[in-house]
Here is the input.
Amino acid sequence: MLKQKRKKGLERCVSASGLKKYVQAHWQLYLMMLPPLIVLLIFAYGPMYGLILAFKDYKVSLGIGGSPWASDFGLGNFIRFFDNYNFWACLKNTLVLSVYTMLVEIPTAIILALSLNYVKNRVFKKAAQMITYCPYFISTIVFVGIINMLMDNRIGVIGSFLYNNFGINILGSPELFPSLYVWSGVWQTVGYGSIIYVAALASVDMQIHEAAIIDGATLLQRIRYVDIPAILPTAVIMMILNMGRILNTGYEKILAMQNQMNLSTSEVISTYSYKVSLVSTFPDFPLATAIGMFQSVIGLILVLIVNKIAKKISGNGLM
Here is the structure.
């Protein structure tokens, strides 16, 4: 027993000295890592102190530390959010938009990547990639402005046609808001989202395709039995990551697209949190913090659950 302890102690000393020598030999790399590490600590871990607000009855004059704890064992802000008349509507709208987006964006990105992978003309392929990538780099506000100009029922090219011929007011119809939000998002992000699948397809050995052609496989059969299995692990990882953001749709685009007529389907958890914390006459920071923590915890739980299911079904997962 004593010999084993001595052996372990010696191994630790050797490993510690080896690590010290390695750091001294590669100190430039660690110096380069220092700025992003400092930024991460300041902007990612530092603000975590503010999460205490979710459990406090915050008073500005007392500060975060001096403010009393919330009622119901510190869970009063969470209970207020769950009891709010708008909670179920916001939750439903958030889930509808998130699931709808995930079911549309991942398949469309895969289809675009597969299509680009089989384009023979290099000039056309590069032009198609550039055209589909460009909308991603347009500012959200500018992009929503373009949507409003196209869909306006008075001056918009698409909106006026639909309104004059079918009586459809796209911007003012609550039932059309989810589709408008999701498919405009596809237009903006499908090109950028396909990059990762194009990279996965580029790693497929061409000898497999040549063997499939010799065996008489058609184009669709090659896609089904060669390409799709190659990009399936990437698609599973992307799905797991999207599940983590299922309650956090982001408020910028939705808030810019909101109006009084579509509010019943466009009010989501993120926009509600923004309104109660920054737009309200009396900002409720503890409630907004509780909402943000609720979104993060649910996202983490969903990531773990979906990752476990994906590993059991396909053998691929994030962890």
